[in-house]
Amino acid sequence: MALRARGTALEDRCQQPTAFPVAASAPVSAYGLPGPLRALIEGFQERRARTTADKSLALRLKDAMTREQVTARGLSFYIEHGAVAVYGNVADGAEREAILGLIARQPGVTRIVDHLRLADA
Question: Which Gene3D superfamilies match (predicted)?
Fold first, then answer.
């Protein structure tokens, strides 16, 4: 049988609202939490960081395609954990190599999955 003292200073502090609002995107320190809860919070933060990295990689690819004036249209990029899968039709092998090289030069790319098809001549 566990005894619990009521009205302790710690219990009173936990019931009082914080003096300042916490942003929803602020990282939460998992230090000192029970193992399962700490693992859950750290896993969430890791997934959010990967998602943010993938989104920034997608924006860099879009900007690079515009900057390099890639003429191929209808290309699709799927990015997960830095792996870039590219789909679409290209006119010839030179255009295919130019697109794959452009992707490879982007920081954060860990793997390229080529699903490009040569257009029928």
Answer: 3.30.1340.30
